[in-house]
Design a protein that fits this description.
The protein is mainly β and about 375 residues long. It contains one helix and 24 strands.
């Protein structure tokens, strides 16, 4: 701004000097010579021409001011981020899984293209979406001892994250059928994904629900089921590594179906579906529910789908288990779900929802795991 202002002043002075030359009246001739003028420090004196025998003596010649330097052009403004339209592409991929319960999306082999991890009642499988098909990359049976008291309705949780002290990606999985869950890691021979395998790293005595925090400060939210039911209890909710104050947040409902967390734009967003099919949204800490959405199924996800730095919330419908369902994408205004972006029906029930870049194109897609008798599919929406 200062450079532009000085340039404007220089141009103004030059214009004033030019106007002064054009409007100055000629000095009449006189036998007495005009007194000499001391040259300005910024101007060079001009030699006086010989008097003309006829006509007036010309006045002093003023040297025009030096032209102001051309202003330096401002650098071009960076192009504004293009906001992607959500829901333009949809595709379905058949998967073979025994009673699907949960889904997660993560780049296991660091090739910038995420894989899809699917948890069934008695198995865990990894798929890559390639060439219009879900290509199986690994599968492992869950052979833990049966739970002493099983939930009335089968449930399962699946969390893919890194844990402090171990740089590899960890897959934490547990179903209500087993007395414990398992922590798996992906093992491969460098870039050859085909040679990879799911390797057991240890047993889980809890249900992993969400992971938050940067590497070195990772915290995993865990809980336990209500005995004989498919719900979790706040009094059994805590973080690992263990907190100094392990009591459950006061704003968490006493009993809930699901809990998820996502970090978008540097802020942590939590979502909890209670027994009234109401999705509660928290921002930062689990100390106050700032937004709510009614009529929501227990499958939901929070993610930035259009790349604008603000989150969307993707939900299923509070429909009977396994029946026709709806996938609904809403924007979050602050922490309140509003402004439906996409809504369409599904003939199959939506079991779980995740998100990630499954195509390797820098686009975050919704991946919904659906189930109906004899058929399980991945519904992908971009």
């Amino acid at each position: 701004m200062r450079r532009w202002a000085l340039a404007a002043v220089g141009l103004g002075l030059a214009a004033c000097a030019a106007r002064a030359d054009s409007t100055r009246a000629p000095i009449p001739s006189s036998p007495t010579p005009s007194p000499s003028r001391s040259p300005s420090p910024s101007r060079s004196p001009s030699p006086s021409p010989s008097p003309s025998p006829a006509g007036p003596r010309p006045g002093p010649v003023l040297t025009p001011a030096s032209p102001a330097p051309a202003p330096t052009p401002a650098p071009p403004a960076p192009a504004a981020a293009t906001k992607r339209k959500i829901g333009e592409k949809r595709a379905s991929y058949a998967v073979k899984i025994d009673e699907p319960l949960a889904v997660a999306v993560a780049d296991l082999d660091a090739d910038k293209r995420a894989e899809v991890v699917v948890l069934g009642a008695r198995e865990l499988a990894v798929y890559a979406l390639d060439g219009g098909a879900a290509v199986e990359r690994a599968r492992v049976r869950l052979d833990e001892p049966p739970a002493p008291i099983r939930a009335r309705t089968r449930t399962g949780v699946l969390l893919v994250t890194t844990l402090d002290g171990d740089p590899s990606v960890q897959i934490l999985a547990r179903t209500s059928d087993g007395a414990s869950g398992w922590r798996f890691a992906w093992r491969g021979d460098g870039a050859n994904f085909e040679e990879g395998a799911l390797v057991k790293r240890g047993a889980l005595t809890y249900y992993p629900l969400a992971a938050v925090g940067a590497p070195g400060q990772r915290r995993v939210a865990v809980a336990d089921l209500t005995s004989g039911k498919d719900t979790f209890e706040a009094r059994h909710f805590f973080f690992l590594p263990a907190d100094a104050s392990p009591q459950a947040p006061a704003a968490l409902p006493d009993t809930f179906y699901t809990l998820e967390a996502a970090t978008v734009g540097g802020a942590v967003y939590w979502g909890v579906v209670d027994l009234e099919s109401t999705l509660r949204i928290y921002r930062g800490q689990l100390d106050k529910a700032e937004g709510k959405a009614a009529g929501v199924g227990y499958a939901f996800e929070i993610a930035d789908l259009d790349g604008d730095g603000a989150p969307e919330v993707i939900t299923s419908d509070a429909a009977p288990f396994g029946g026709p369902d709806q996938l609904v994408i809403r924007r979050l205004r602050g922490s309140t779900p509003s402004g439906t972006v996409v809504r369409f029906g599904s003939k199959a029930g939506i079991v779980a929802i995740a998100s990630g870049d499954v195509g390797g194109e820098g686009v975050t897609a919704v991946v919904a795991l659906t189930r109906r008798p004899g058929k399980s599919e991945l519904l992908v929406v971009e």
